[in-house]
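Worked example 2:
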Amino acid sequence: MPRSIDHFPDELIQNIISRNDDKQTLYSLCFVSKRIHGITLPYLYRRFTHRMFERPQRLHTFLRSVLVRPELVLACEHIEILDPETSVDYWDLDSWRGWAEERYLPILQASDHMAILTAGTPLHNNAQDEIGHLIHSEEAQAALLICLAQNLTYLHIENPNTTIEARRFQTDHLLMETLHPQIRENKILQNLQHLAATSSRLEGGQGGFRLSAIAPFFRLPGLRKFSGNVCHEPEDGLFAGFDCPARSSAVTTLSLHHSAVCPLALQLMIGACARLDHFACDWAGTAVGWVELNFPLLRAALREHRATLRTLTLDTRAHFDSWPEHDDGLIPALGDLGDFVLLEALDVPASALIGWDEAGVAHGAGSALRDVLPPRIRELRVNQVAPRVYEHIAALAEVCNERFPELRRVVLVDMHDGADAGGVEADLRKAFGDWGTDVDFVVEYPAETGYYLRN
């Protein structure tokens, strides 16, 4: 029997190490023996997370290592390029510039120049100004790392814009301007599976990502999931320039969180997907103005994927300024989802299903819940209830076995003040029990769901 890990077969050691993401543990293993060091070292380079404009020397060290040993960059599967951590001075440009003039030094050491220029020259077609950025710009250096990591499967980029906004970071455009032509020529990121595009800057024009900035990524052959947080209001134009052809992208999962995103932007992203299996959006932008919540327009875009869509999540509870269930006037619902033949999980507000105004009047013909649910639904989660929604759910009992035989779970969230949760649950269980339908009912409260609702 082996007396230490150094006596294990290489395959077993590799299997054990591959399950560990703790940097300190991996680092310690590198000192066990020369053999264990050789097996472990690539796993130390599997993930790289870096905050820009704080400690560029950390990026320089990582680049130096992978240029000396190219096999290490091929082990890199997960890269996160983040903005600086927010602080008291985060929005104070004068304070940031004062700090940067004294302590921010993105220039590479002279001893690294030749290796960096050699690695970066093919990316820039020998354009001297762009090659020079590799020496002086942290963003250009981060772009080089991403280009070199050919086996990358996950990429997180914050504020991936192509034009300079408030001149805090001076070169907010270099990262994307380097990546875009390489993507279009199919030279990089061919194995990327998940792109996350987010931003801590959610105010006016600083609304996360422009669609033009992420459009080239939608052309990648391996990209299956896009997630992000964004503020796109109809008047700000940030949803323009999305040039990915309709029904051409391999993306099957779209997930937008803490976002206030207008229907025009959603239409473009949804329309680019050849098939969409999962769609989620919560209108929970923390520093944004009014954004239209247009359920019918969203359904029209999703209808192109009615033969493939499996899960649909829409959440309006934490929207900053537009609460559809409480605005004056009628709230049009999604409409009939009967032709979404694979849709099995719905997590939506009551207004998205039955439509109603603040007086509790149902909107439009055919808005009864029993008339709009998809035929293969397994779980219905009403994440914000409305007046009379309990009546709509109870009315499902009579037709459930015939129309929705796979329905097994109903969750009600955010019940109105004064509602008797126990009584509602009991009444619904009885209604369905009387018709011989086995459906589990759960009542949840806001404190139990969604961290952004508690913060």
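The longest strand covers residues 253-261. The chain has a mean pLDDT of 80.
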